[in-house]
Design goal:
The chain is mainly α. The protein has helices at residues 12-28, 35-61, 69-80.
Length: 96
Amino acid sequence: MDKPNYGNWVPQKLSLFLLCASIVSYLVTFLLHIRLITSILKITSLLLLGLFIYLEYVYWLLEKDDKRMQKQFWNLLLEQLKWDGRGKALDIGTGS
């Protein structure tokens, strides 16, 4: 029986955008000479970098590797279903 491939719900484009925004906001601090604005931009770049790292960590946790969390959850859920493997199953409203 083929097992479904649900993919990964973490948006990689958003993660990449956060990384780029973090780098750009940090680089802009070298162009400005106003201490308050550069401090705000540095804090912003650190926050964006933190969000990027968090999303990448969650993406890694939810990878399809058998040792990772999402695969273990799917297998546990499928084991609890009383289904003999014949016929079809419909998955509605469960996200990606």
